[in-house]
What does this fold into?
Amino acid sequence: MNILEECVLLLCCRLGDPKIRPLTMPRFKELGLRVLSSLIGGNHLTELRPSDLCRIGYPREEAEHIIDLLDRKDALDAYLAHGETLGIYPITRVSEDYPSRITKKQSMSRPPSLFVMGDASLLEKPAIAVVGSRDLQAENERFARAAGRLAAEEGYILVSGGARGADTAAQEACLEAGGKCMIFVAGSLQSCTPNQNILYISEDGYDIPFSAARALHRNSLIHIMGEKTLAAQCTREKGGTWQGCTENLKRGWSDLFVFDDGSEAMQMLMDLGATGISIPERFEDLQTMQTSLF
It folds into this structure.
């Protein structure tokens, strides 16, 4: 791990200490890795002083906070070493293997770090995302399972959030058909059971507990990592599936296809630009359907 990767982790991760206040994304972007690089050069991190940051306009208190974050090398080493025993390691936004789709779609707002358990090469393979409600109707569950099975059969990685309902239905069907899954978890990676066919991913740390905010934020990464995103079921103007789908339509993260189940929510998403589909038989047909609408 090079010095810039260490900087990202030191500045933006709690490293197992809930009392730590890492830099927010706006503050991290303001500091900028280019600024750190010019200040640090090839020297050890501890050689950077608050006065160096004060000279470029930082208030003394904030400069000292940044230096305190950087002065946690021992904590970083211990955190990474423990993660390694669990098969977990970080990928930072300055790492060569950071997912190119996230870099392309989120640019400067992309997460500073991702912690992964499993085969990280899956991050660059063709993928299909499946999202949907936790409490599925029978017909909608059949849709989710069909999408998961088809991902395996056509050689796509299935992207999901690992939640109850649509996520789990699609994931189970994909694995049963011999496929591989990429799961963005909203809680601790330490609670995940290693599986050679699953890549687990968490933002900012491997020990952070579940929160609604983390669940909502990871939804954007699910939509981004799928070349196509399929929504199995949704509640109108409510919940993570609705938020993720509407944000996707605004920002163009991936082509969005929704199960045309006759619900008001799905009709509204179609009115906003999503493509309504029945239970898919081939993913190739989805692009033909979308093209025929224009």
Observations:
- The chain has two domains: 3-85, 120-292.
- The radius of gyration is 21 Å.
- The beta strands are 88-92, 113-117, 127-131, 157-160, 181-184, 198-203, 228-231, 255-259, 275-277.
- Residues 138-153 form the longest helix (16 residues).
